[in-house]
Amino acid sequence: MITEVPVGLSLLSAGYCLHPELLTLRGGSLKPVAFPAGYALIRHPKYGPILFDTGYSARFFRETASLPALLYRKITPVVYRDEESAARRLEEGGITPGDVRYVVLSHFHADHIGGVRDFPQAQFIYLRKSYDAVSRLGPVRATKAGFLPGLLPDDFNLRSLPLDEYSAMRPLPEGLPFTEAYDLLGDGSLLAVELSGHAAGMIGLFVSTAEHDYLLCADTVWSSRAFRENRKPHPAAGLIMSSRAEYNHNFERLRRIHEQLPALRIVPSHCREALALWGTGSVK
């Protein structure tokens, strides 16, 4: 095990967006394909249900009803049904929104924070510079950055636990392309690493079940094919990246860890293949 405390894990999605594959995978099709808005439910033996991101919610459509945010919806069309929301899926599995103590946010793009308002008791764990990169942007620049501030609850700052201020660092096993990680809960169960590039301060999460190790890598890539086949996005995708250099660095890290630890289950948030292989479709 990469982590020290095994947890339960359900890989789910709440809606999807349509995007030309070519922009996310060099040499891909120009035809728009579906990219699920993936998130994960982690069942911790002590802290109970924890979310890694939330996917979309109906609030996305209210927040993009007028310009400039309407451009977000027009450029990246979203397909979503209310029964797909993270809150609804958890309730179907016997978990109320108030049961969720922590929501880990990989970064602040709308397809990752769409449902956070549905969890009124949760505290939010993220890398401080991820929020700082978007929180002071005006409407036009925020839309360009994929951030819709109305998706966050009014008391977001009061419920925030920035991991670089509250979490200690823990060494990772030798051989990984990361030397240490943020120990989110202090027990070695959830280990976060910075994967900036797609977005400033984006994090991924190492978690282990009793059977498998996982790396929830957020948007470091949009599909497993990218790191398996060494196919970066089209250069045009760099226009919306926070840093092309950091993106390339972390893309190579992902390729190396896949080669060194082929049994590790790397889960990009928008990968249909990973969800089909390891997703549960419902809370278990």
UniProtKB/TrEMBL annotation:
It holds the Pfam family Lactamase_B. The keyword Hydrolase applies. Its cofactor is Zn(2+). SUPFAM superfamilies: Metallo-hydrolase/oxidoreductase. Keywords: Hydrolase, Metal-binding, Zinc. Coiled coil: none annotated. It comes from the Bacteria. The keyword Metal-binding applies. It catalyses: 3',5'-cyclic UMP + H2O = UMP + H(+); 3',5'-cyclic CMP + H2O = CMP + H(+). Residues 36-270 form the Metallo-beta-lactamase domain. Belongs to the metallo-beta-lactamase superfamily. Counteracts the endogenous Pycsar antiviral defense system. Phosphodiesterase that enables metal-dependent hydrolysis of host cyclic nucleotide Pycsar defense signals such as cCMP and cUMP. This is MBL fold metallo-hydrolase. It comes from Paenibacillus tritici.
